Amino acid sequence: MKMTFLILVIGLVACNNTETKNTSIKIDALKNLQVSSEEIEKPTAIKPASKIYFNKRFKDVTVTKINANRFRIKGQGQFFEANFNWVVEDGHEELKKGFEITDAGAPEWGKFEFTIEIEKIRLNSRLMLILFELSAMDGSRQYELPIVLD
After folding, report:
1. Which residue from 109, 127, 93 is spatially nearest to 55, judged by alpha carbons?
2. Nearest by Cα to 101 from 133, 72, 130
3. I want to staple 62 with a disulfide (CB 3.0 to 4.6 A). Which of 15, 50, 109, 142 is the partner?
4. Kind plus residue range of the DSSP H or E element containing 20
């Protein structure tokens, strides 16, 4: 019984002793490792991916916030006579509206790019840009594409 206990204690000490030696070797190796400043990768700022909006008439639409009240809208559209409309609202009323022209008419996908400068009237409101095509039959909005501008 004493012999078994003695062998067990010696085994534990031996295992523990080996781990200490390996650890100290690893630490010494790390201390001696020299890395030049050129070899170290410097962290780069990660720019969040732009959200891309689309529907049946609009594709690859992105919005870039230029400053607090200015936004750049880019994308492609497929419209009769190459034009579409837009409106910015805050959930209560229309704040601004207009129309744009793409560089090609349907059936081609024409490119567009424009900027909107808009200020909130209500501090806690949310600005919503809605891109759409007007119906040739009755002038109603078709293919609305809502985009939050905050």
Report:
1. 109
2. 133
3. 50
4. helix 2-32
Residue (of 78, 134, 86) closest to 111 by Cα position = 78
User: Which residue is associated with the tokens 């700022």?
Assistant: 45
Who's near 87: CB < 8 A, 6+ residues apart?
94, 96, 97, 129, 130, 132
Q: What angle do CA 96, 99, 101 make, to 5 degrees?
A: 150
Q: Enter the pTM of the model.
A: 0.67
What the block records as the tokens of 126 is 């949310």
**Chain segment 119-140, per-residue pLDDT in tens:** 999 888 999 999 999 998 999 9
